[in-house]
Amino acid sequence: MHRRTWLLLWVILPLTSEADVVDVPELGIRFADLANDLPRPQVVERPAGYEAQTHTHSGTTVLSAYRDEASVPADGNLTDSGYRAGLDARFGTNVKAAKKGAATSLAGHGSWTVSDAQRLGPGVVYTWLTYTIVDQHLYKLTVSSLSLTGQMPPEFETLVKAMAGIAFEPIVRSERPVPESTSTSSRKEMPRFVSGGGAGSYPAPSKRRNEQGPVDIEFSIDRQGHVQDLKQKYSASHDLGAAAEALLTDGVFRVPSDWEATGARNQRFTMEFQFALVERGASCPAPQTPPRIPGAEVVAICSQRP
């Protein structure tokens, strides 16, 4: 039986919250002064950590918090421009902390903060970015806002000021452990996939051309959980196929420790990415089943029409 994975763009279905004190236990964060009409942050697992996002109801101002699971290396120092350059390259942000910003403090922890404004077409993108290290774990906190008038939006200023009330607490989450060993069966089950979040969104050219439909990709998985030997079996369009491949290569599978020893590295798996466009305010459709290829795992990717 195939499983269904939902990867809906979070801007479509905002959640609601009336609390101005918001706990995000998966990241060990408490926001003490968020606006009471701000949607509750949505938490997603990333290949190397956890990320929480929320946004104003207009969708133009976004708050993001990310925490690395691995400990910061012994030579990791936020005052070192070389270390910050590595963070710039790793996260691919347009705001470069290597040459901008200043040493700051957040909730008593040493930090590095950059405030930036960059023109984007007729508008301006305002960004507040802070890296901080808490208990040897890196946090990346961002507030960004697109202003079509060029003036700094009031909600951007409000969210940046609210970051001063952040507190760091012990991590509390319901872990889904990676199995210690695979099944003795010659056919292994596809491991759990964790999206990287930085790729695989609905491609803009496909939106403009109203392109929708499935993309079937066959691949193998190495011992680090990365996809290898990708082969498109079917694609509704070139751009949709490229987006599906980007999502796979940007993420990681949680493979058991004996994945390669049991020969699972040589097994082929198939995912079917079902791209769909909806009108503004409409709900995303359920995945179409059965998939084109029997046994393929179905991934639904949905976005609003331009």
Describe the structure.
- The chain has 306 residues and is mainly beta.
- The chain has two domains: 13-168, Mog1/PsbP, alpha/beta/alpha sandwich (Protein Transport Mog1p, Chain A, 3-Layer(aba) Sandwich), CATH 3.40.1000; 199-304, 2-Layer Sandwich (TolA/TonB C-terminal domain).
- It is 12% helix and 38% strand.
- It has four helices and 17 strands.
- A hairpin with a 2-residue loop joins strand 7 (102-106) and strand 8.
Q: Average pLDDT across residues?
A: 86
- Into how many domains do the coordinates divide? 2
Number of DSSP strand runs: 17
Pairing-aware structural class of the strands and helices? mainly beta
How do the helices and strands follow one another from N- to C-terminus? EEEEEEHEEEEHEEHEEHEEE
Strand content: 35-45%
Major beta sheet, strand line-up: 4-5-6-10-9-8-7
CATH superfamily of the largest domain: Mog1/PsbP, alpha/beta/alpha sandwich
CATH topology of the largest domain: Protein Transport Mog1p, Chain A
